[in-house]
Amino acid sequence: MKTIILNFEQKTPNFKELIQEALNHNFLDILVSKHMFQEISQFERLITYSKDLTLPVKNLICSDIDKVKRLMPKSESNPVKIGIYRELVTKEDERIIIGLSETSLLDFIIVSAKDWKVIPYENLIAAMHSNNTNLIAEVYSVKEAELMLNVLEVGVDGILYAPKNVDELEELKRFTQSNFKINLTKAKVISIQNIPESERVCVDTTSLLEVGEGMLIGSTAKGFVLVHAEVFDTKFVSSRPFRVNAGDVSAYILVPSEKQGVYRTKYLSELKGGDQVYVVDIEGNTRIATVGRVKIETRPMLRFELEALINNEVIHINCICQNAETVKIVDNHGVARPVVDIKISDEVIVHVGPGATHFGTAVKEKIVEK
Predict the structure, then answer these.
(1) I need a labelling partner for 40 at 20 to 30 A (CA). Which of 139, 232, 248, 342 fits?
(2) Which of 191, 137, 213, 207 lies closest to 304 in space, CA to CA?
(3) Distances (CA, A) of 183 to 36, 49, 284, 286, 310
(4) DSSP, residue by residue, 41-106
(5) The CATH homologous superfamily of the domain defined by 3-176
(6) HEC per residue, 24-44
(7) Which segments of 169-285 are extended strands (E)?
(8) What are the residues facing 215 on neighbouring strands?
(9) What is the pLDDT of residues 25-60, one digit of tens each?
(10) What is the pTM of this model?
(11) What distance in Å separates the CA atoms of residue 333 and residue 327, rounded to the nearest whole number?
(12) pLDDT tens string 145-200
């Protein structure tokens, strides 16, 4: 998830309206001055930041590395995160920021670049994407925020912005829900197996899903099939537009990662209310939905074995779905088809995965799943 820090160091006439709208959109990261800290102290949900190192905030922003060192070491009893604020004007500033990110002393670096923007941030993203220091860009318009969140496709880890009105918060919400796109391809069904009994998992989200949306589910980390949401009414069953009847308890599902542009996997059996999952459409666009509940019940299932061809290499993919007319997977034409109607040689939409994961995270290790 991208971090959106709203700058409320100065109190504006519409402050109360802005803070309420921020809460409505779940923008909880707030930069405050000493005076404004008192104004927002009544809101327990907020994640506070300040350049005033005397305030009991959750994130302290230092002006130089010496002040950071004086705040070290952190401990479990003092879990405050520490960052630094730097202006970027010259190439030397860029090198200093990269060096700071490699010290392991900082949780985040806020960078202000008022002149040159895209090229310096491209360099910073390329250098910092593999370390644990988040790159936050200070921006001066909503349009600039959108640009920074998409630089090099990955984008910065977050932005710092002083909103002028509630419409700007609405815009921020629209393009920060998820800008992560997943590559989809097609795979051919080569075998179908009946499984008399399995434990089936329905993922009920707190969001309404649309036609063309579903979740990517797979029996191995090699690949995932797009299982469609239950958005269609039938003559026997009403739609459940918040639900994906996803698969068996051992299957993987794609979920957001802390690092932007990377997903993780979870077993369906691990999911619980409050977790977040990726909802994916037929173009590979994603958004994040929160799980309201998970329903696990014993049902007859179908096991599909598929083959995808990637760079002249055949990738074997497996997916297990409940044997029912209401459960649909998306074919290569983007049509949601009941699994009971899928035949051998049919082609469906899939995502070819990394092939090896450890506790849900892709690893460069040889792991055999079959």
Answers:
(1) 139
(2) 191
(3) 44, 36, 6, 11, 12
(4) TT-TT-EEEES-TTS--SEEEESSHHHHHHHPPPBTTB--EEEEEEE--SHHHHHHHHHHHTSS--
(5) Aldolase class I (3.20.20.70)
(6) HCCCCEEECCHHHHHHHCCCC
(7) 185-205, 213-220, 223-228, 243-248, 252-256, 263-267, 276-281
(8) 227
(9) 889 999 999 999 988 888 888 999 999 999 999 999
(10) 0.60
(11) 17
(12) 988 887 766 788 999 999 999 999 988 887 776 557 899 999 999 999 999 999 99
Tokens 């299957």, located at residue = 251
| DSSP assignment letter at 291 | E
Q: In 10 A of CB 59, how many CB atoms? A: 19
- Residue 102 identity (one-letter amino acid): E
Token pair in block for residue 284: 């590979």
Distance, in Å, from the CA atom of 28 to the CA atom of 94, rounded to the nearest integer, reads 29
Q: Which amino acid is at 273?
A: G
Tens-place pLDDT, residues 204-231: 999 999 999 999 999 999 999 999 999 9
Q: Look at the block and give the residue holding tokens 């469609």.
A: 228
- Tokens describing residue 243: 């639900």
* Cα angle for residues 107, 286, 260 (degrees, 5° grid): 15
Q: Which two tokens stand for residue 40?
A: 């927002």
- Give the list of residues 6+ apart from residue 99 with CB closer than 8 angstroms, or none: none
